[in-house]
Amino acid sequence: MNPVYCDTHGNVFDLPGHDPAFRTGNRVVPVQGEELIPLPYGSLLFSMPGRYPVFYDGTTGELEIIDEVDHEQVWAASAFLSSGYLRTYLPASRLQEGAPSLPLWAYSGVVYQDGQFMVPALRIDEDPRSDPEIHENEKELKKAAGRLRKMYPENCLVRQLEHCATEYRCLCARNFFLSRYEAPVPTTPWCNARCAGCLSFQEEDGVHASQYRLQMVPTPEEIAEVMLHHARLVDESVLSFGQGCEGEPLLRAKDLSAAIEMVRDNTDRGTIHLNTNGSLPGELDRMIRAGLQSVRISLNSAGEKYYNAYYRPQGYSYGDVLQSIQLSLDSGLFVSLNLFFMPGFTDMESEVDALFTLLDGYPVHMIQTRNLNIDPDYYFDAIGFVEDTPLGIRTMLDMIKKEYPGITLGYYNPPREQFRT
Ligand code: SF4
Fold this sequence. Notes:
Helix content is about 30%, strand content about 25%. By secondary structure, it is an alpha+beta fold. A hairpin with a 2-residue loop joins strand 4 and strand 5. Bound molecules: iron/sulfur cluster (SF4). Iron/sulfur cluster binds near residues 194, 198, 247 and 248.
């Protein structure tokens, strides 16, 4: 098993004579073979400019910061895993003085073994909806997008989704045009949080956002038209408010409730779902009374300190988020937590304790384990990270399975036909 690194052109090499290392929190640890799986199909390899790789010297076993190989400057290498996979360790690297923050991706460790790249990860959800194998269909997608453009020439949401599917390669938007699985229903340009890792909005001095925040504001009629199109055509479909390209949908709860009622006046097919920061329980209640069936509330931590440091709430509190979870449970919704995973932080003893305290008080039905797309150093600075003992991501998952056997661990919003409550 050899460590890998990149030259400054992004070419990836292995370095025999050294042993690889991984990172968890701010610790560097040896690589355990049992943690590794082959690099999943469709994953990407990234260089990490301004980060020197850290390996173990194959002879002395000492940790070594590698800044050059054959007199050529080198950078650390990482993998960005395909959807449905949860990384368990970060790449081991040392930040170069003054290096810029890395873009908003989930950087995973990677090594080279027996002719293939291996990564510390596990498949957490077998649902195929975002598997790269089923998204290699540009021609079919373009044809379908053209057909829907003709069917709904005035609908600005269909135009936005076409942009998302073709420009951003949003797999959810592609599934809408291909009439399968989950359809995204982005509706809201504004947000009442300022997440350090927001994919669609970043302050000028921050890291670069991965996609541009939605600018258009579809009417309830346009929203219902998109939802009805998908619900009528797709069995066990999911219709999801709250996408990466928008702000917080609860800020438009009145319009979204009107759209939900229009849909339910016409069909009972499909699962109406909301991805949200859970900030406005009163507005959530309005959507529940209109017919919402499933909700996913995002958290980077079950502890208020780190929650506030990451979300930077504008006019709401962590208490409001807990109230939204309770309201959803009391109203019989399928309730998921969208827990952002950062190795060495999420599996810290204190974070796991905080999570278990939340699960004891709020027996949710599912935890979606999401790799947090952010530069680890930028994240730890942003939240004022104070390290304590990491338990290990796999150990943490085993503890959840043992302590909360009724909770599903996964990655995607299930249709109601698959709810396990
Ligand atoms: S809640 Fe969502 S849209 Fe709002 S800042 Fe956070 S990530 Fe961005």
